[in-house]
């Protein structure tokens, strides 16, 4: 939209670079071009503003396929006004000289023209295409047919409109039909997932079986080795007992032999000692037999004195001394002496 300002009964218009301005004054063309800026009087001016930039027109409409299924087509058409003068002659692009706003709705007219033309060609294509084919290849075929149909539409060049590009975004069936169409694929995907799950479980079971077999084999090997260990321990115990018994026998025999030798030595020593004692006793008796009784009495007294406690002093009366001497067999005179 152009910018319009007021100054002392005059109006000043300043347009954008993408807007083509046509100014008629008293039926004659005074200004014609893009990005213009000029003064004018509102009572004698007729203004038109035609946008010349590329514009996107989004459209959505319903169609029916060859198997009588309703689909929704979403498309976008890019267009531009290549001949502003022709467009201004065919459509109402006039603007209010005081506000600069369009008096009509020219862009809506262009949108209606493009939408109806595209819809006509789309319906012609989809009416001969089954739903499955339309969903698979319909986007390309519809885009090609709409582009060809818009390029061949005579009203567009006559109005100064060029179609730059056509894009078909999607062709979608009704929600129930779409869910029904998705069901086989979903079931197949689910079957693939189930098969993968079963295969994974089978692999897991096989691995668990292998692990169990390995564990069982390990337990069997461990039991076999334990049996060998028990046998070896028994053999070692038997050998140890036999060796110990043999050692005890050898030790017992050695101890018995030692005791026998010791007993024999002790007996021999006892015989020799007894013989020596007997000879000494015989000699002693023989010596005592040859000695007179008085000497023996003296020796007995001496031995008795040796075995008696120590006597510091002894007082004997004459009667006692006389009796003692008499027992010893000595005369009193001898005792006095």
UniProtKB/TrEMBL annotation:
Spans through the membrane: none
Family annotation (SUPFAM superfamilies): Band 7/SPFH domain
Residue ranges, annotated region (Disordered): 231-252
InterPro entries listed in its UniProt record: Band_7, Band_7/SPFH_dom_sf
Domain Band: 33-197
Composition-biased stretches (Basic and acidic residues): 237-252
Coiled coil: none
Pfam families (alphabetical): Band_7 (PF01145)
Record protein name field: SPFH domain-containing protein
Provenance organism: Streptomyces filamentosus
Organismal lineage: Bacteria, Bacillati, Actinomycetota, Actinomycetes, Kitasatosporales
